[in-house]
Amino acid sequence: MRPSGRAADEMRAITVQTGFTKHAEGSVLIGFGDTKVLVTASVEERVPPFMRGKGEGWVTAEYSMLPRATHTRGSREAAKGKQSGRTQEIQRLIGRSLRAVTDLKKLGERQITLDCDVIQADGGTRTASISGAWIALRLAVQGLLDSGAIKEDPLTRKVAAISCGIHQGTPVLDLDYIEDSSADADANFVLIEGGHIAEVQATAEGATYDEEGLLRLLRLARIGCAEIFAAQDKAVAR
Amino acid sequence: MRPSGRAADEMRAITVQTGFTKHAEGSVLIGFGDTKVLVTASVEERVPPFMRGKGEGWVTAEYSMLPRATHTRGSREAAKGKQSGRTQEIQRLIGRSLRAVTDLKKLGERQITLDCDVIQADGGTRTASISGAWIALRLAVQGLLDSGAIKEDPLTRKVAAISCGIHQGTPVLDLDYIEDSSADADANFVLIEGGHIAEVQATAEGATYDEEGLLRLLRLARIGCAEIFAAQDKAVAR
Amino acid sequence: MRPSGRAADEMRAITVQTGFTKHAEGSVLIGFGDTKVLVTASVEERVPPFMRGKGEGWVTAEYSMLPRATHTRGSREAAKGKQSGRTQEIQRLIGRSLRAVTDLKKLGERQITLDCDVIQADGGTRTASISGAWIALRLAVQGLLDSGAIKEDPLTRKVAAISCGIHQGTPVLDLDYIEDSSADADANFVLIEGGHIAEVQATAEGATYDEEGLLRLLRLARIGCAEIFAAQDKAVAR
Amino acid sequence: MRPSGRAADEMRAITVQTGFTKHAEGSVLIGFGDTKVLVTASVEERVPPFMRGKGEGWVTAEYSMLPRATHTRGSREAAKGKQSGRTQEIQRLIGRSLRAVTDLKKLGERQITLDCDVIQADGGTRTASISGAWIALRLAVQGLLDSGAIKEDPLTRKVAAISCGIHQGTPVLDLDYIEDSSADADANFVLIEGGHIAEVQATAEGATYDEEGLLRLLRLARIGCAEIFAAQDKAVAR
Amino acid sequence: MRPSGRAADEMRAITVQTGFTKHAEGSVLIGFGDTKVLVTASVEERVPPFMRGKGEGWVTAEYSMLPRATHTRGSREAAKGKQSGRTQEIQRLIGRSLRAVTDLKKLGERQITLDCDVIQADGGTRTASISGAWIALRLAVQGLLDSGAIKEDPLTRKVAAISCGIHQGTPVLDLDYIEDSSADADANFVLIEGGHIAEVQATAEGATYDEEGLLRLLRLARIGCAEIFAAQDKAVAR
Amino acid sequence: MRPSGRAADEMRAITVQTGFTKHAEGSVLIGFGDTKVLVTASVEERVPPFMRGKGEGWVTAEYSMLPRATHTRGSREAAKGKQSGRTQEIQRLIGRSLRAVTDLKKLGERQITLDCDVIQADGGTRTASISGAWIALRLAVQGLLDSGAIKEDPLTRKVAAISCGIHQGTPVLDLDYIEDSSADADANFVLIEGGHIAEVQATAEGATYDEEGLLRLLRLARIGCAEIFAAQDKAVAR
Fold first, then answer.
1. What pLDDT is recorded for position E205?
2. pLDDT (tens digit, 9 = 90+) per residue, C177-220?
3. Of A88, C73, E77, F127, which is most buried with the most CB atoms under 10 A?
4. What is the crossing angle of helices D125-146 and D211-236, to 10°?
5. Predicted pLDDT of residue B46
6. Is A86 annotated as a binding-site member?
7. Quick one: which residues bind phosphate (chains A, B, C, D, E, F) (predicted)?
8. Which pLDDT belongs to residue C205?
9. If DSSP states are collapsed to H, E and C, what string results for chain E?
């Protein structure tokens, strides 16, 4: 029995509110249960130094937790003067995941930055960030297409992410904070619609798992991502 | 005529949504028109080193803009590795304003931190922050009173803040971004209910004003704060 | 009775020693009683990035306390690796105050930096800095006019600053350290000759004041600034 | 055909030189072909603040590349003043991997730090680091057992890591730099002897893979780790 | 012929103004010609962590140039967020030089910090700093003896420093900025009265010198330090 | 009697292994007894900003200790976020020493960086670094000559460095860690073949020395450097 009463393969409610802020080219407040992340997509007509002159664009991400997104207040990274290793690891993951479905040539020499700011945390902030970032990116790209700034859609597949884990011996989908704190193993899957894997990050500090265990988690992830893909479709439908 | 069509002494709509996040001891999403600030109050049972052993508490604030709260994306302070002078100036102002209405002795040896994170900016982010921070602080203090952690209410007066300025020669109340960018002079007033002044920060880069001009702005500020005090009362009514 | 024996509207002795250092285009050691600030004006034939290509100049300021300017040694900001919020707030104020009396177009595409280094502190370091910075700026601008680098004087009015406060219930002028530490309220006024206000920064951590109190402090500030304007005139007379 | 002429399931030569430096409680220079990493294990009789008073120990890791370990010189992180996100991600991975095989209670209240400094890089620096770190840790723990500082061996299983990837459509084992730069997908596996998985980090920026692809990479990883386990056994045999 | 018209073994005028600031336990404005350094000695009743519990004191130094001490404005280290290598090298040298004449046991468990702030630079700022720091330290120690805080004088010898160099083939004493910029070799000597050497830092980027050259510079340094010792005696005479 | 049993004028064994890493244009693992430093020379076809457009090259150095090069683990400078004063002082010394024997005009507009990473420390790390850096630089320059990138050899003399000190009253050559920790005085000499002095850094925290003492140390240094010059010759012989 899961602490939340959910079935092993049951996601939390996915909530999506597009246009949550007005300045960004794309913005969404995405919720996986009590985890709430505000994602904005910002289009800038320049690329970072290492991409200049290639005729291609760039997609990148930044991630942050508001200090009191969590049960007890964490210190503000801007005040400490540096981003934690965890923050950097997550924002690199988000960027890679979005680039996995973006044709940078078709984007043209411009950058889209996905800012993922966690308003409230209850487990799964990185997977909600990736899933929401696709929506914000899609909205921003749609704007570029509508205005004629780009001719061909650089974003033809969806990407979503979900965490799975082994909790009290049972593989479960979409861990909340209570499960995450006591899970024997924890895996984040970034999947692309059509069945492909973009990223797997599976960790077992306490227990370990074998090949069969990994596959069971992957199959749960497919169930979860199918539900996220549907929510993404609905959010960007015109 | 103001760009927004408002009268000279007309505030933007004040919106208040308490309990916007669930972990904080007090939380509010406050809006002054399109300016939206999420304020959380976090209670910690310790005080900063310079207050230890005095039998008193402390109230402090941190302030930040989400990178895409603004028209164009600003760089993230956590990524740059330092807070700007503007950020530090604002968070010091918020802290002083709240301490002006808090009896630190009655608070006991604990700290309350007000985190003010600007979700969307359209002028007046510091005044919305102060006005919202009072609500979050009030909610957190109420919790301490309800639980018996403190016996006497350390917070017996309300504090609110509003900006005024001289726009095209006319003193106006509650500047939005368009007015703020082109104002001849700009003043932020922090007022305490009952007519007292806690802080004045008046600046004139372009024009300057005289004693009479300062008083006209102060009178507008009284009008605006009266409206904010009413919204605060409504927000914390039980 | 004030601790120093001064009358309520009595300034400390203002001392001005121009040419205190030889390399700077303008330099002055200004004293408000025991508060001593060395201000240098440095002219550079370039402007910061945000001003490039506008055909205008820029005036900016930096502020620092020597570690043992104060009663007990403070840590050196260069050793700590960052400037405090207080330092940044003050140097922003100094820069704005000087720009309030400078016609940046007439200055041409060059920058003048006012470095205000507090040699000894006894209250009022920011107001002495502003008042002295005008002298250093005036001397540097005079050099540019004399050499023909600029044709029209970009600096046609004087600016000065003074602190006032309510000490034991009485509004007093030019607070020294003892008064400042125990004042109920503290206000810094930056005034321009001719009666205009450039900046007001009024704070009341303990008590608060009302409109009448603010005006009484402003009137004291006028008295103090008149004396500073006279000292400035004398210092730059040729 | 692989650029190196190796078979798809063929590792590079593993070289192990224990006792490479004399001060550390354990030290090894490990090579996976031209990738050379110096790993030292340092025992300290204290634990980090978050572990104090629990009666348990801690195992952590730091990772760095010498500036000219690579084809072109990279900037020195100490000179830049911060560690990159990649560095932090890798050192967190190394630490977790070693903790997965360490019984922290049996270690007692002390910390062992694994410093992994890449002397020469040719792909697979993080996997060589983990594999070498186990040897250094084993040597340090043996010293603690020999001296009687600890009674029971906290380290009863081996851990090793290897990268696999899809290169020109073929799954291959132990990617060198040339393969890594052009791989369609890249996965790092951290395996524990006995067939268990401690960590999987699989990334596909260009292509993606499906379940079958992931399993093929995992099977290659088992082949590689078997070879590393043998080299580890030989290195620590007494 | 030297640019200044001085003889090869002729010092610039040494000026000493003790009590330049009022808060420090010892303070002096020392001048070697146009080089002016303000040195303050601050006594604190605590020692740094590495000296705790030894029953000994510590003497340390910090050094800084005001941004416009030099011909062209240098950037402020506090604003840049770090001290340059040159700054750190000099402050370490000053600290070592003063400790060479201090009996730390007799000082008792307290720290004296010598802050050397260069007001105006014209070559020889580190040697003026050391020579002035001895005066400030002597004054602070005298205060400790007078108050009875310490019983025995920990400072029984004087220390002074001077630069020498080879300028256009001729060994010269006390280089000013013009000579320093074009010198073939440059050496700083820290000497203790009675003929002993505390430190030699001799550098030859352009030319080099031989044993005889080094000795000629050392002999010039003796002449210069004799003059500084006399000035120190006069400054601290009661 | 020296702790190591060496004669007063006896060097530790000098070991030199060129080509220790494969990517660098020059690389060497140099040992002075148990002190082992890896030095790489990296050629880059650009110069730092202050050298641009002069048609000259630049030679610079960076220095670091691996955290466990020493008896007890030191913290990693990259993790602390800054280089210590000692590190900066040493890398400045290495750079100056190499530039003393390099004709920057003949090098052409390119930079050579000498990275000196201490693998194991037992005293004399800076002198081993300088002595090894010359070898790495020589190898890199030889590559530039061989490829025709430069026409004339910019490096016509050798430079070497050695420490000497007064240990228990006796002047001794090439101090190891035990001697260094207890030496009365310590001097590092950087000598150029042919008898010239490039740098002297002589320090006496405890005792002091006189002219005769300095000369005796210099003469020991000549003995040591002669031996290093021979080792350098042998290392770069083709």
1. 64
2. 999 998 888 999 999 998 799 999 999 866 667 888 899 999 99
3. F127
4. 40
5. 95
6. yes
7. 86, 124-126
8. 65
9. CCCCCCCCCCCCCEEEEECCCCCCCEEEEEEECCEEEEEEEEEECCCCHHHCCCCCCEEEEEEEECCCCCCCCCCCHHHHCCCCHHHHHHHHHHHHHHHCCCCHHHHCCCEEEEEEEEEECCCCHHHHHHHHHHHHHHHHHHHHHHHCCCCCCCCCCCEEEEEEEEECCEEEECCCHHHHHHCCEEEEEEEECCCEEEEEEEECCCCCECHHHHHHHHHHHHHHHHHHHHHHHHHHCC
C73 annotated as ligand-binding = no
Are the C-beta atoms of residues F14 and F231 closer than 8 Å to each other? yes
A203 Cβ neighbours under 8 A, 6+ residues apart: A185, A186, A187, D96, D198, D199
Nearest to D68 by CA among B104, F42, B125, B87: F42
Cβ neighbours of B82 in A, within 8 Å: 78, 81
Separation CA A96–CA A118 (nearest Å): 19
Identify the residue whose tokens are 């003949």. F106
CATH numeric code, B14-236: 3.30.230.70
**pLDDT tens, position by position, B81-121:** 999 999 999 999 999 999 999 999 999 999 999 999 999 99
Q: Is the torsion defined by CA of F195, F201, F204, F209 positive or negative?
A: positive
Contacts of B196 by beta carbon, 8 Å cutoff, 6+ apart: C204, C208, C209, C210
Chain B contact for C210 (CB, 8 A cutoff): yes
Instruction: Name chain A contacts of B73, Cβ cutoff 8 Å.
Output: 42, 44, 113, 115
Task: Let me know how long chain B is.
Answer: 238
Do the Cβ atoms of A205 and D100 come within 8 Å?
yes
Contacts of C200 in chain B (CB under 8 A): 187, 200-202, 214
Put simply, the answer to whether F68 touches D24 (Cβ < 8 Å) is yes
What phi and psi, each to the nearest 5 degrees, are found at residue F172?
A: -130, 155
Q: State whether B100 and C192 contact (CB < 8 Å).
A: no
Residue D208 has pLDDT above 80, yes or no: no
CB pairs A-D closer than 8 Å = 95
Burial category of C72 from C-beta neighbours within 10 Å (exposed 0-12, middle 13-18, buried 19 and up): exposed
- Decide if A78 and B83 are in contact by the 8 Å CB cutoff: yes
Interface contact B218, partner C, CB < 8 A: yes
pTM: 0.92
CA–CA gap between residue C23 and residue C25 (Å, rounded): 7
A93 and A120 Cβ atoms separated by less than 8 Å: no
At position D27, the amino acid (one-letter code) is: S
- Token pair 């290639």 in the structure block, residue: A54
| Helix (H/G/I), strand (E/B), else coil: C187 | strand
Q: Are A103 and A57 in contact (CB under 8 A)?
A: no
Asked if residues E30 and E14 have their Cβ atoms less than 8 Å apart, the reply is: yes
Instruction: Decide if B120 and A23 are in contact by the 8 Å CB cutoff.
Output: yes
- CB-nearest partner of B115 from A20, A34, A68: A68
Whole-number pLDDT of residue A205: 64
Give the residue ranges of chain C where pLDDT is below 50.
none
- Contact flag C197-B214 (C-beta cutoff 8 Å): yes
Query: E57-71 pLDDT, tens per residue?
Result: 999 999 999 999 999
**Phi-psi category of residue F175: left, alpha or beta, with phi > 0 → left and psi -120 to 50 → alpha:** beta
Nearest to B133 by CA among B44, B47, B37: B37
Under 8 Å CB pairs connecting chains C and E tally to 95
- φ/ψ of C23, rounded to 5, equals -80, -35
Question: Taking the C-alpha atoms of D58, D59, D65 and D69 in order, what is their torsion angle to the nearest 10 degrees?
Answer: 160
Q: What angle do CA B47, B52, B57 make, to 5 degrees?
A: 45
